[in-house]
Amino acid sequence: MKHSAQRDAILEELCSRKDHPTADELYWSLRQIMPNISMGTVYRNLSLLTETGQIMRLSYGGADHFDGNPQNHYHLHCTSCNRVYDIEMPMCSKMEEDAEKHSKAKITNHILTFIGICENCQN
Amino acid sequence: MKHSAQRDAILEELCSRKDHPTADELYWSLRQIMPNISMGTVYRNLSLLTETGQIMRLSYGGADHFDGNPQNHYHLHCTSCNRVYDIEMPMCSKMEEDAEKHSKAKITNHILTFIGICENCQN
DNA sequence: ATCAATATCGATAACTGTTACTATTATTAT
DNA sequence: ATAATAATAGTAACAGTTATCGATATTGAT
Fold first, then answer.
1. Which of A116, B26, B31, B33 could form a cystine bridge with B107, CB 3.0-4.6 A?
2. Are residues A35 and A79 located together in one domain of the fold?
3. Protein-nucleic contacts, chain B 44-73 to strand C, CB < 7 Å
4. In this predicted structure, what is the pLDDT of residue A10?
5. Both A14 and A41 in a single domain?
6. C1’ D20 / CA B42, Å
7. Cβ atoms B43, A44 nearer than 8 A
8. Portion 58-117 of B in contact with A at CB < 8 A
9. Are B9 and B63 found together in one domain?
């Protein structure tokens, strides 16, 4: 894997924000500091960074969102603005053990997403 | 909402299976008993049935899956075959209260998905 | 520093999953 | 029966994403 200024910029931009932008949102932000970065480059690097575990992909239907923090944690998906925010509460890994007791699956991870209305959209 | 044989067939097929098929998988099954049902009809009715709360849509990236049981419950997403199965364990609604304590969001629901290898794919 | 090998780039075409459109058909209330 | 209209099959269009390609940038060896 070779170094690239575009990949650096993508990772830096993503990590500097606490929202969880889509590829498209990220693209338009990056255009302001790197005016001819291309959409393909954004998508390619988001996939690369996801594969190498440096960021996290969030799929809730519609466009994927991306999180600069690759450590598993929980999110709020706001049904009003469609944005995604962190919920800072302790991980509940015990649920994975529970789930293995109730099935014959080998469980490696879990994804917990809360659905509701974010602080902003309540006003 | 008028009655329709196609919608009946879609709902019946979906409820009779314990896997959680995609629109495409459902379409090809239905073609065998209703040879000129169209893809548009499948998609349109899956959306209608989701809106009226008769079924549930599951989005994990890639094609959506559908569940004939609209009551919230937990799933396993197998990373090997990409299929989705039920995990029959008790709902943990307390987590929603926890999440509200840790944020200013108004939470109405939560989606919990376990990631791993299903029984079939372990062999 | 130069060079060869090749990963990455920007641009654009292609692809997948889904929704929208349209003329026709089926259902329903009168 | 008839009129009103929801639903259909078929197809075009769309959104999000991935693949292709010739040009460019990075890297390690000389």
1. A116
2. no
3. 47, 62-64
4. 98
5. yes
6. 33
7. no
8. 59-62, 64, 74, 76, 78-79, 85, 87-89, 92, 95-96, 98-99, 101-117
9. yes
Instruction: Looking at the structure, tell me whether residues A50 and A79 fall in a common domain.
Output: no
User: Are A36 and A63 within one domain?
Assistant: yes
The number of distinct structural domains making up chain B is 2
Query: pLDDT tens across A41-97, in order?
Result: 999 999 999 999 999 999 999 999 999 999 999 999 999 999 999 999 999 999 999
Distance B108 CA to C15 C1' (A): 37
pLDDT at A6: 98
Indicate the pairing of strand A84-87 with strand A74-78: antiparallel
What is the rounded CA–CA span in Å between residue A76 and residue B22? 25
Do A78 and A24 lie in one domain? The reply is no
User: Strand runs (DSSP E) across A1-83, as ranges?
Assistant: 56-58, 65-67, 74-78
- By Cβ distance, the residue of A59, A92, A116 closest to B106 is A116
Asked which of A29, A49, A67 is the last residue of a domain, the reply is: A67
Whether the model clears a pTM of 0.85, i.e. scores above it, the answer is yes
- Do A60 and A9 share a structural domain? yes
